[in-house]
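Can anyone check this?
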Amino acid sequence: MRILANYGCKADGESYSVTFETMGDVGKEKVEATVDELFGLAREAVKRQIEGKASEPKKETSQEPQLKNPDAPATKKQVNLIIKLAKEKGKFIENPSSLTIAEASHTIEELMAV
């Protein structure tokens, strides 16, 4: 189950909103805790915006993108790209939808290098 949490409010004529989404599936036993955590994070983020303490976006210093959870299932976008690249390169990738995010990223890199 995916969980999407939206939180917004108005202050001094300005609207503020934040959206958080889980990466991968959340089991039924963890739904309540996950929802509470997402809304808490969103509420705090909006509070920082209103108080003018919102942090500047972090700039990546390394060339490698940071994966939030490399063991989560590959995204639909990754799977579709793998299928497309494999067809273009004449390769066969067995069951790309069973890959993790990290494995899918590695597979994409390999296919692009061919």
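Reply from J.R.: I decoded it. Residues 64 and 75 are 18 Å apart (CA to CA).
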